[in-house]
Design brief:
Structural class: alpha/beta
Number of helices: 14
CATH architecture of the largest domain: 3-Layer(aba) Sandwich
Enzyme class: oxidoreductase
Number of strands: 24
CATH class of the largest domain: Alpha Beta
CATH superfamily of the largest domain: Aldehyde Dehydrogenase, Chain A, domain 1
Function: Part of the sulfo-TAL (or sulfo-SFT) pathway, a D-sulfoquinovose degradation pathway that produces sulfolactate (SL). Catalyzes the oxidation of 3-sulfolactaldehyde (SLA) to sulfolactate (SL).
Catalytic activity: (2S)-3-sulfolactaldehyde + NAD(+) + H2O = (2S)-3-sulfolactate + NADH + 2 H(+)
Family: Belongs to the aldehyde dehydrogenase family.
Radius of gyration: 24 Å
EC number: 1.2.1.97
Largest sheet: 7 strands, mixed
């Protein structure tokens, strides 16, 4: 029997709009239907882009204090309804209610930082008289909005990663169209609700729900969309880059983040940090700890403590405050992770704990003795699996850490500042956390990677830089 649900509308150029064709949103914990959302068509996206062109003109004329006021009000609305937002994140996605509550808090901060950064979009004066013959010229440049931005967002942070695109876009005077992950659209629609309640002018923001195969290409290819901001997988990112044409592209494409643990490290702290970093959001975290390189003199001690702490993880009901880890986003994803682990074991890897699947749930898993020719050794797992390696010294650890196609963030645990500095200088990543796991991040810092981990940087100030362009103004003075 089909469960009747109210049906959520999408936010189409400032209006809540439904469609006859809908998409079911299911809770991965039990596959129950939570709600439905409209399945937008290619024609819908084309029309939305036309509306956004007008929205870009409206946004560009908003005074800075008006942009700030709207963003602050949106943040206040979310704070006043934080239980609803957290519950929605936990229902439609993989996060536990504790993890979801933290995401809501981060979203509020992301928006408030966006409001503050709106007042800091500065240009500079230009000394034109540095060029002979230009002694009678003065001028400057200013940062101006790029226009219409297309944002394609993932399921793993369905509220805050949308805010990381919407907040800077509105702060910098742009219009933005969000295409949220098909499996987690409700949180993005709640963000739109906050901006609607805050009085954002119509056409500046749209959240269009639908299948990527139907509406994604339209958004990516359209010449009126001047920038694509994408967070997701490498293959999808490469496909977008091929299709986008002449426009700005900002991409965060994941990683298989390494952490180095040296013999002088605080092992108790290293274990606690890396266990959390490996299994937060069921390991579906672009910054998640995947590979840990432990100096051989402390490998046995670290391994024993790590497995013991992992075995204590409570997997179960996402809505319970006692649960540490919920399911993966779909059973299909859990099967994919299961196959990767089984392949590694068949090739000689040793399973220390975990390795069990129950529908969409996959237990926190620790492997060692991992052969280099298995998929899990080189590619992003995006699941609750961590690999432990023994290394002779820091040089070997750095070499192995760099021997992949990704480079988002890394961590190193050591009390030796010289060794920390060596890792900082030689590791090919966008960020290094010293005495912390790779998954540490604040929303104000520049965030992005090297190699195939992406292009450009997020983090509000840095996203605003990506979403604006310099316009030069020069005055030729006649009586100078």
């Amino acid at each position: 029997m089909k469960i009747q649900v109210a049906g959520r509308k999408m936010y189409f150029a400032g209006k809540w709009t439904g469609r006859d064709q809908t998409i079911e949103v299911r809770d991965p914990q039990d596959n129950s239907i939570i709600d439905t959302v409209p399945a937008a068509s290619a024609e819908d996206m084309l029309q939305c882009i036309e509306e956004a062109k007008d929205g870009a003109k409206i946004a560009a004329t908003m005074a800075v204090h008006e942009r700030m006021a709207v963003i602050y009000k949106a943040a206040d609305y979310i704070e006043a309804n934080k239980e609803k937002y957290a519950s929605t994140i936990a229902r439609e996605g993989s996060k536990t209610i504790r993890e979801a509550t933290k995401e809501v808090a981060r979203c509020i901060q992301t928006l408030r930082i966006s409001a503050e950064e709106a007042r800091r979009i500065h240009g500079e004066t230009i000394p034109f008289d540095q060029m002979p013959g230009s002694e009678n010229r003065v001028g400057y440049y200013q940062q101006v909005p790029i226009g219409v931005i297309g944002a394609i967002t993932p399921f793993n942070d369905p509220l805050n990663l949308v805010a990381h695109k919407v907040g800077p876009a509105i702060a910098s005077g742009n219009a933005i169209i969000v295409k949220p992950a098909t499996v987690t659209p409700l949180s993005a629609l709640l963000l739109a609700e906050a901006f609607a309640e805050a009085g954002l002018p119509s056409k500046v923001l749209s959240v269009i729900t639908g299948y990527g195969s139907e509406i994604g290409d339209v958004l990516v290819k359209h010449p009126a969309v001047r920038m694509i901001s994408f967070t997701g997988g490498l293959e999808a990112g490469e496909e977008i880059a091929r299709k986008a044409g002449l426009k700005k592209i900002s991409m965060e494409l994941g990683s298989n983040s390494p952490v180095i643990v040296l013999e002088d490290a605080d092992l108790e702290d290293a274990v606690e940090s890396t266990v959390s970093g490996a299994f937060w959001a069921a390991g579906q975290n672009c910054l998640g700890v995947q590979r840990i390189y432990i100096q051989e003199s402390v490998i046995d001690q670290f391994k024993t403590a790590f497995v013991e702490r992992t075995s204590q993880y409570n997997m179960g009901d996402k809505q319970s405050e006692l649960t540490d880890m919920g399911p993966l986003i779909t059973e299909k994803e859990a099967i994919r992770v299961e196959k990767m682990v089984n392949e590694a074991i068949e090739k000689g890897a040793m399973l220390l704990t975990g390795g069990k699947r129950n529908k969409a749930f996959y237990s926190p898993t620790v492997l060692t003795n991992i052969p280099e020719d298995c998929t899990i050794a080189k590619e992003e797992i995006f699941g609750p699996v961590v690999l432990l390696y023994s290394v002779l010294d820091i040089d070997t650890a750095i070499e192995k850490s760099n021997d992949v196609n990704y480079g988002l963030q890394a961590g190193i645990f050591t009390k030796n500042i010289d060794k920390a500095q060596k890792a900082i200088a030689k590791m090919d990543v966008g960020g290094i956390m010293v005495n912390d796991s790779s998954d540490y991040r604040i929303d104000a810092m520049p965030f992005g990677g090297m190699k195939k981990s992406g292009l450009g940087r997020e983090g509000i100030k840095f996203a605003i830089h990506e979403m604006t362009v310099p316009k030069v103004v020069c005055f030729k003075l006649s009586n100078y």
